[in-house]
């Protein structure tokens, strides 16, 4: 899973920051915006050239980056460019949080989209409790991400925002992933143990 996820993390998170900051330092805001758009569409062209499919989500992301770049260029503000994904993160945090009192944990929905799980397993009380807690955890992670991002966006330089915020968010996400994996393993051990004694 890590071998599968790491290249996508570098391509989707680290590389865009490097590209934007390098272009920002050398060419200014408009050059950085153009570089960000070229990076996204270059990635799509590279996939087509190698015969790999391009997902609808990636195409939507490309359109989103284009709209953000145009708005930032018109307003002459890098803050505008970074504000939209931060507000999106805040909405995701609210979705995770709202799913808990509704007893329809979003973490469970995302997990079962990636890995099919038996219905009997998902109905187990310990499993339900795990997914509710993990939904709360990820809500906290996304809220923290949004708060850090907003504070740095309005109080620090773009360079500081790009590097420090990216590092903090990556570290926070890594800790949450580790807690999620360890929690799921404990949940599996408990459920399997209970089934063995039944």
Describe the structure in brief:
The chain has helices at 2-49, 56-75, 78-99, 106-114, 119-123, 125-155, 158-197.
Would you mind describing this structure in some detail?
By secondary structure, the protein is mostly helical. The chain has two domains: 1-76, no CATH class; 77-198, no CATH class. It is 88% helix and 0% strand. It is built from seven helices and no strands. The protein has helices spanning 2-49, 56-75, 78-99, 106-114, 119-123, 125-155, 158-197. Helix 1 (2-49) packs across helix 2, helix 1 (2-49) crosses helix 7 and helix 3 (78-99) runs antiparallel to helix 6. The two termini are 33 Å apart. The mean pLDDT is 83.
Could you outline the blueprint of secondary structure elements for this entry?
Layout: H1 2-49, H2 56-75, H3 78-99, H4 106-114, H5 119-123, H6 125-155, H7 158-197
Keywords: Membrane, Transmembrane, Transmembrane helix
Organism: Actinomadura fulvescens
Transmembrane segments: 20-42, 54-74, 80-100, 130-154, 160-184
């Amino acid at each position: 899973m890590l071998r599968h996820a790491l290249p996508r993390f570098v391509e989707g998170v680290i590389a865009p920051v490097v590209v934007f900051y390098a272009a920002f330092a050398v060419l200014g805001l408009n050059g950085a915006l153009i570089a960000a758009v070229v990076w996204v569409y270059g990635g799509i062209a590279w996939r087509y050239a190698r015969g790999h499919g391009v997902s609808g989500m990636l195409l939507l992301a490309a359109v989103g980056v284009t709209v953000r770049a145009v708005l930032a260029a018109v307003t002459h503000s890098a803050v505008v460019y970074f504000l939209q994904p931060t507000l999106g993160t805040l909405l995701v945090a609210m979705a995770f949080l709202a799913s808990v009192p509704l007893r329809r944990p979003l973490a469970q929905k995302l997990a079962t989209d990636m890995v099919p799980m038996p219905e009997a397993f998902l109905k187990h009380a310990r499993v339900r409790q795990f997914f509710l807690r993990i939904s709360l955890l990820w809500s906290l992670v996304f809220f923290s991400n949004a708060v850090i991002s907003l504070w740095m966006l309005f109080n620090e330089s773009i360079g500081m925002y790009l590097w420090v915020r990216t590092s903090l968010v990556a570290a926070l996400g890594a800790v949450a992933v580790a807690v999620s994996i360890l929690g799921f393993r404990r949940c599996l051990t408990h459920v399997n143990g209970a089934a063995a004694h039944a």
